[in-house]
Design goal:
Layout lengths: L12 H10 L6 H14 L3 E5 L2 H11 L7 E4 L5 H10 L2 E4 L22 E5 L10 H10 L3 E5 L7 E2 L2 E2 L5 E5 L12 E5 L2 H11 L20 H11 L2 H19 L5 E2 L14 E5 L7 H10 L24 E2 L4 H9 E4 L7 H14 L3
Parallel strand pairs: 2-3, 2-4, 3-12, 4-5, 5-8
Antiparallel strand pairs: 1-9, 6-7, 8-9, 10-11, 11-13
Helix pairs in contact: 1-7, 2-7, 3-4, 3-6, 8-11, 9-11
The chain binds pyridoxal-5'-phosphate (PLP).
Length: 365
């Protein structure tokens, strides 16, 4: 079976052993080393490691002390974590449709959604390519809004030389399916010292020093054990990204010219780190997206469907007082067309060629 995700963490052994032998398993020096490494890479002054990507988004929002009714504008085409963090923070989520070229928020549609209650823009860097952060940053400055960037899938990517996570509060995930993993974990990157300080308080029960409570926080700490795994993975970020890009190029070369099949694009000025390689199977294709997925599965090739619907379009979110629904026709259509193929660094050329062959066979391309 050619799987959708591969994780090679055997090199973590020595760092994990270092943690075990130190006896300091909870947040400590290994977390600090991880923060330093990720902060340096993102070119920001502060990196704060937390327990998950969801916590990174939640604490970034909580740090701004949003009041009930304050609005956070985000993408409808994302994982539920983005929306859950907004709702948990007490704010209201509102949505701007995506652009079909990069699957991310369409900045052209953004200003029309901004109103007096809007406080934060929360774009998502889907599949490993940043949203149009340059345009989003201009709109944020003009309207005095904060930026929280959901870069969970985009560690290592950049835009006109600026790394993902350097545009406000950058939120990364170290979950098992992300390009750099610690098993579980997250990081917030920012140049804003006050924001970083607040997030440090919030992750540890609001304490400045022991029992010196300054805010109502929680336990969102990362352990040194997880940080050891994350650090050993992070050392390979460049190599992982290059292998993913090589794999994506090979897939795109092999899949070019099939009627009705749209290949993923890298927008000029941006780098893509290919957390997912995502096709669009349009109605002009010779079989449906679901038939293609079934045919691949029969031939031992996993594929993924990220995401089946606009994120707010589930019973648990319908009618929720903290959600402002919007018509998002591009996201709705895209959700019906997308299919992600294996692109992870563990694939061989033979694996990739098999994925190409079976995809072509299914689409009679
Ligand atoms: C993975 C992911 C998250 C959440 O990260 P966790 O570490 O799983 O909490 C948030 N947003 C997006 C887009 C993700 O892919």
């Amino acid at each position: 079976m050619i799987s959708l995700v591969s994780v090679d963490v055997h090199e973590a052994e020595s760092l994990v052993l270092e943690v075990l032998r130190s006896g300091q398993l909870a947040q400590g020096p290994m977390v600090e080393r991880l923060e330093k490494a990720i902060g340096q890479w993102a070119g920001v002054e502060h990196a704060v490691a937390v327990s998950s990507g969801t916590a990174a988004i939640l604490l970034s929002l909580q740090a701004w002390e949003l009041k009930p009714g304050d609005e956070v504008i985000t993408s409808p085409f994302t994982f539920s974590a983005t929306l859950n963090a907004i709702i948990t923070s007490g704010a209201t989520a509102s949505f701007v449709d995506i652009h079909p070229d990069d699957f991310n928020i369409d900045p052209e549609l953004l200003e029309a959604r901004i109103n007096d209650r809007t406080k934060v823009l929360l774009p998502v860097d889907l599949y490993g390519q940043t949203a149009d952060m340059a345009s989003i940053e201009k709109i944020a400055v003009k309207n005095r809004l904060k930026i929280v960037e959901d870069a969970a899938q985009a560690i290592g990517s950049s835009q006109f030389g600026r790394p993902a996570g350097s545009f406000g509060a950058g939120c990364f995930s170290l979950y098992a399916t992300k390009n750099v993993t610690a098993g579980e974990g997250g990081v917030v990157t920012t140049d804003d010292g006050e924001l970083a300080d607040r997030i440090r308080l919030l992750r540890n029960q609001g304490m400045r020093d022991r029992y010196d409570y300054r805010r109502i926080g929680g336990n969102h700490r990362l352990s040194d054990l997880h940080a050891a795994v994350g650090l050993s993975q992070f050392a390979h970020l460049q190599e992982f990204s290059e292998k993913r890009a090589y794999n994506a190029d090979r897939l795109s070369d092999g899949l070019a010219g099939i009627p009705g099949l749209l290949l993923p694009r890298t927008i000029p000025g941006r780098t893509h780190v290919w957390n997912q390689y995502t096709l669009r199977v349009t109605e002009d294709a010779s079989c449906s997206r679901d038939e293609l997925a079934a045919q691949l599965a029969r031939n031992g090739i996993a594929s993924g469907h990220f995401y089946p619907r606009p994120v707010f379009d589930y019973p648990c979110y319908r009618g929720h007082p903290q959600i402002v629904r919007a018509a998002v026709p591009v996201a709705a259509r895209t959700a019906a067309e997308v299919l992600s193929l294996p692109v992870h660094p563990g694939l061989t050329d033979a694996d990739l060629d098999r994925v190409i062959r079976e995809t072509r066979a299914a689409l009679r391309g």
